[in-house]
Amino acid sequence: MAGLPVILLAELVTGRFRWSSTALDRPIVLLLAAALASGLASQWPGESAPLAALFGLTVLVTVHAAVGIIRTDPSRIRPIVVAWIAGAVLAAVWGIARAGEWPERASTPALLSTALGTTLAAGAVLALGAWTVARTRQTRVVLAAVLPLLVAALELTASRGAWIGAAAGAAVLVACAPRARAALLALVLASVVVATAAIGRDRETVMRRLASVPSVQANLDRWTLWTAVPRIVRDHPALGTGYGTFTRVWPHYRPDTVHEEKPTAHNVYLNFAAETGLAGLAAFLLFVAAGLAGLWRAAGAARGDPATDGLWVGVLAATVAVLVHQFFDATVMSWHTGFGLIALFAMGAAAARSGAPGRPTGRRRSV
Fold first, then answer.
1. Residues 48 and 38 sit within 8 Å (Cβ to Cβ)
2. Contact status, residue 96 vs residue 106, Cβ threshold 8 Å
3. Is the pLDDT of residue 364 over 50?
4. DSSP assignment, residue 78?
5. For labelling, which of 4, 142, 269, 351 has a CA lying 20 to 30 Å from the CA of 55?
6. Those residues with Cβ within 8 angstroms of residue 63's Cβ, 6 or more apart along the chain or in another chain
7. Three-class SS state of 280
8. Domain range for residue 282?
9. What are the DSSP E strand ranges found in 196-334?
């Protein structure tokens, strides 16, 4: 990620920069305009405006890179998914190694437990999608073997939002899989059973945490945050408090009995509403809708291609997993996981524009 702005700058300096148009263009313009406007109008412009500019740079370089890769040859989705799964496996191993006595949860230095949960949920769903199009028996065995590892690490993050997201993504994948749905469902269930058995002494704690998902009492911290957002929006309806300023504004709206600092609203949609107002929320929802529509079209265009159809359905399902998790956390507000979500959207938009996600398309169309 750190090298992408350098590459973008080099392209601009040498005159080789070409922006490939997709259906994401207008939502991106609206989203970045709302974020920057919120930063400039914020009570803390010196803090918010640079964060909004960094957010804009992240979006632009990610979309430019992802579209450039997929537009020229949509079949490149295979090595991208393989690399993504490999990264998730490494993150799982690292997270498990760092997990100690509860409540010391699985995490990595760059990813806290909730963000690691996002990474593992997406990685597990992508692995399931790759399993449906594996070319050899050995590849299917390897993918089936790494799935319990990913699920075990996901359980040890204790991120209930990530668990719900992973379940939603797996459900979408099983429902939309082009083949072997019964075997795919069996693989999902077997992976959960093996992973849960493998976590040993933490199994009882994980089960108790799972049982707390519907409990109002166990989720009062989220409820306190979420009910504060309408009051923030009431006071700052158009442009919000400024992109990246939730930490600043939260002390003015939290109850007197709550003293804990909160960096986000633990819901990315409410977070955009609080920080960028109704304009920013509408722009973000438009961006999400355009991204999902592109992935849906890409998966539909790949249907019938045994080499890539399951991969594109897996990408769509993994994106659903990430987005569902964001109802309970705002992990994509950090560039580590935000980069991944934007890249998924961009790849789908590029493949949908090409109309042939499984085959090379020749010369790239640019504006």
1. yes
2. yes
3. no
4. H
5. 351
6. 22, 24, 28, 342, 345, 346
7. helix
8. 21-218+258-354
9. none
206 vs 103: CA distance, rounded Å:
10
The pLDDT tens digits for 40-84 are 999 999 999 999 999 999 999 899 989 988 988 888 899 999 999
Contacts of 121 (CB under 8 A, 6+ apart): 154, 162, 163, 165, 166, 169, 318, 321, 322, 325
Domain count for the chain: 1
Closest CA to 349 of 177, 341, 172, 324: 341
According to DSSP, residue 236 is labeled: S
d(CA 195, CA 308): 28
The answer to whether the CB of 157 falls within 8 A of the CB of 104 is no
Copy the structure tokens of residue 148.
């319990």
Regarding pTM above 0.85, the answer is yes
* Residue owning tokens 């504004």: 249
Tell me, what DSSP letter sits at residue 75? Answer: G
What six digits make up the tokens of 271? 């977070």
